[in-house]
Amino acid sequence: MENNWRASIEENPTERNEVCSLSMVRRVAAMLDVDTASFSIGDLLPRGWHFFLLAGETRKSDLRSDGFPGLGVPLPDLGLPRLLLGGRTVSYKGDITIGSEVARTSFVSNITEKTPPSGRMAIVTIQHELRPVSTPAPAIIETQTYILLSGKSGQSNTKKPIAPPIQSSYQKQVVPNETLLFQYSALGFNSHKIHLDRDYAQKVEGLPDLVVNGGLATLLLTEFLRNDLGLKLTDIKVKHTAPLFCDRPMTLAADRSETGWQLKIVDDTNEPAVEMEAKIMEV
Q1: What is the DSSP secondary-structure string of the chain?
Q2: What InterPro entries does UniProt report for this protein, alphabetically (predicted)?
Q3: Cystine design at 80: which of 148, 159, 219, 254 (Cβ 3.0–4.6 Å)?
């Protein structure tokens, strides 16, 4: 039976067309405190802003118990109530024009089930392709890796000791508040309760506070490269090693590497939470 649903999912991608609308782009700009009037039909969508084109459209009655709207494709019920983003890769083969129609294809590329000492878990990898309908090849290919778990979080509410400040060439501090989490979740149609419902996050999942969306953390890093450092992305690889929490300062850091840039986000105790490898377009 397992092989039947696995084959069915992997062989039946979800396909639909999206519009890179000016109104959505301006709302992303407003969330990021960028001048909304600086964007017009025909402009190129800033690289990193395509997340709203990957939004789910799951009916309310079909939501998971944690409120997560889905991965862009249907999945079987694996009996694992907790879901976390483990990482993503994004390859920019081209650009998307604001106002254009985009063909989106999403499919499960891998499902791995494991039973470590901490309990049963599954790793699900979804691939998304965004292709302007006027072109034959995808402009953006993104993979997202999710970790499905059973039981409560192993996070402790005990205050961690503060590690020494990190050393890096470029740094920026951000304090993600409830408004930012709400706006990002709304733009991506993400109703996962760990980002929006403090009682659920604390009492059901055993977390200290609302969790910063993994996609939002990635967006803040790509904006750091784009806005603060004036660089244009070609590829990123992101790994989430620990959750980040609402209203707690986090530090974005960047350093050049032999192959591009190494970035990270550390939490309010200076412990790493997100790691990113980025390749940059050469001018």
Answers
A1: -HHHHHHHHHH--EEEEEE--HHHHHHHHHHTT--GGG--TTSBPPTT-GGGGG-----GGG--TT----SSS-----S--EEEEEEEEEEESS--BTT-EEEEEEEEEEEEEE--TT--EEEEEEEEEEEETTSSS-SEEEEEEEEEE-S------SPPPPPPPP--SEEEEE---HHHHHHHHHHTT---GGGT-HHIIIIIS--SSPBPPHHHHHHHHHHIIIIIS---EEEEEEEE-S--BTTS-EEEEEEE-SSSEEEEEE-TTS-EEEEEEEEE---
A2: HotDog_dom_sf, Mitochondrial_HTD2
A3: 148
